[in-house]
Amino acid sequence: MYCETYRVLGEQGLSGLTGVIEIYRTNDIVKLSWLEALLSDAGIECVVLDQHASIIEGSIGAIQRRVMVLEEDALCARRVLSDAGEIEEGA
């Protein structure tokens, strides 16, 4: 499962991780929580990257956080976010 892979690679960083893609980018932590809940309810695992970098830079909004999913879940994840009105269809 992806979460197990993420934990193993977490100490080394994600630079070598393949098979995940970005589906959303924002500085809005409330929206991030909402997106994670939407995806979780649909049975899609996701991870938010750049949280620590954003905190280190003082949360001034210079570094956006990225919502990542497995490539094979990307189409379904985009559909879930589109149906919720969070992204445009085909984005």
Strand order in the sheet with the most strands: 1-3-2
Give the topology string: H per helix, E per strand: HEHEHEH
**Unreliable sequence segments:** 1-15
Total helices: the number is: 4
Structural class: alpha+beta
Largest sheet: 3 strands, antiparallel
Q: What integer value in Å does the Rg equal?
A: 13 Å
Helix content: 40-55%
Broad shape: globular
Indicate the proportion of strand residues. Answer: 15-25%
SSE order and pairing:
Blueprint: H1 2-10, E1 20-26, H2 29-41, E2 46-49, H3 51-56, E3 65-70, H4 74-83
Antiparallel strand pairs: 1-3, 2-3
Main traits of this protein?
3 strands, about 20% strand, 4 helices, three-stranded antiparallel sheet, disordered N terminus, about 40% helix, about 90 residues
How would you portray this structure in words?
- The protein is built from 4 helices and 3 strands; from the N terminus they run H-E-H-E-H-E-H.
- It has helices at residues 2-10, 29-41, 51-56, 74-83; strands spanning 20-26, 46-49, 65-70.
- Helices cover 42% and strands 19% of the residues.
- By secondary structure, the chain is of the alpha+beta class.
- It starts with a helix and ends in an 8-residue tail after the last helix.
- It has a 3-stranded antiparallel β-sheet with strand order 1-3-2.
